[in-house]
Amino acid sequence: MSFMNMDVRWLAGFFDGEGQIAKFYGTVSITQKDITVLEDIQREYGGKFIKTGPKRDAWYLSFSTAEQLRFLKDILPYLRIKNERAIRRIKYLEACKEIGVLGRNYGKNGPRIRDYQF
What we know:
It is a single chain. By secondary structure, the chain is of the alpha+beta class. It has one domain (3-116): Homing endonucleases (Endonuclease I-creI, Roll), CATH 3.10.28.10. Helix content is 42%, strand content 14%. It is built from four helices and four strands. The protein has a four-stranded antiparallel beta sheet. The termini are far apart.
């Protein structure tokens, strides 16, 4: 399946089932054994691949903070399970963007992630 044929509603359902928005580390990723669908998503939204250990034998597609913002905003209207987490993550990322620290290590100068936890 090429991304051109991938509906954003389908992608939201796929992310609801296979994706994660990590509570404390702020990562947004999707896990799959077959890398093909992840490659299609990467072509549209970016991200980097991480191979899991041999026990799970799967791939993670992990998004940078700027990539997270675009990805989550696109699928948000169609999320059912991870909707609330996505809203909180988007608010956090927008707060970072507003003060000019999106995608950078901002230390004590940026918003506190705990203020946006779910």
